[in-house]
Specification:
Elements (H helix, E strand, L loop, with lengths): L13 E12 L5 E13 L4 E4 L5 E4 L4 E6 L15 H11 L4 E5 L2 E5 L10 E3 L7 H14 L5 E6 L3 H9 L3 E12 H7 L9 E4 L4 H6 L1 E2 L2 E2 L4 H6 L4 E8 L3 E11 L2 E9 L8 H15 L4 E7 L3 H9 L3 E10 L2
Parallel strand pairs: 8-9, 16-17
Antiparallel strand pairs: 1-2, 1-5, 2-3, 3-4, 6-7, 7-8, 9-18, 10-17, 10-18, 11-14, 12-13, 14-15, 15-16
Length: about 325
Amino acid sequence: MRVPRFGPADLGRRVSVRFVASDALGALGQPQFRDVVGTLIAADDDTWVVRRRDGQDVAVDPEAVVAARLVPAAPNRLRRAADIDTPSLERIAAAGWQPLEAEEMGGWLLRAAGGFTGRANSVLALGDPDRPWPRALDDVARWYRRRRLVPTVQVALPWGQALDERLAAAGWIAEHPVRVQVVDVASALMLVAVRDDLPPLELTDRPTPAWTSVYRYGSAPLPPVGEAVLANADEPVFVLASDPGPVPVAVGRGALTPGWLGITAIDVAAGARRRGLGGHVLRGLLAKASVRGARFAYLQVADENVAAQALYARFGFVDHHRYHYRRLR
């Protein structure tokens, strides 16, 4: 049977490898096999390096491999949201917040969307580029500058620490630290009760004018390109709460991928805050996800947004990993 050969395109993927251990022989002098499961962080003709869940790196000689396969990040294999590895969760999150333009560069994905949000306008780097390092950075810089965007790389931490150090040494500046948090949907729904005193929720698959009237991008209204990015997912869900009138007062956005709900764009109108509407919208998204069979949820929250973190903690969200952006000035 032909054994699969891993290469740069597989970096960041979860793998299972069985190999002949060169330092171990059985009682009859026969070779002994060892197994390692983890994230592939290096792969060339001479060596594969697999990082186990406990952080230990295992170097494997490809010539000693007798079996190897990619391990899918299937939700039904996970006991809880926190068990997913960082690259798999980043890929799921990328599917829930897609750019308007993308180009692959080996294990890097260049993304652009007119400057609306860092996630849609940065390199998702979950492996190695398909070209030498200095050339890769030059090509990234040209790609973004042609689109009048600042060259930017999203770096997941601590998983991408080596990448982060290389970018820092090349003069790329760290900005905007973000926490990626996860929760089990069933547990979250048990923690926060339904509020019958709050307005009913309207769910749509596109942002309506009433929805966009509430959502703010930072302190500004939604830019023209923003609506296209918000709707660019396989199964987006938009939630709107309106006071009698109707007067839109709170919104949220979800993105459903197999087994997962991505939560973004929770916002409450300035005159309607401190009524529990943010939690009301969040619970509505989680309830929709539960009906659709999603077991887990994730979100991204800026380090400085302590108010949002307090809301998410009520639902049981916990930190999974962090990321920040490295920008070339």
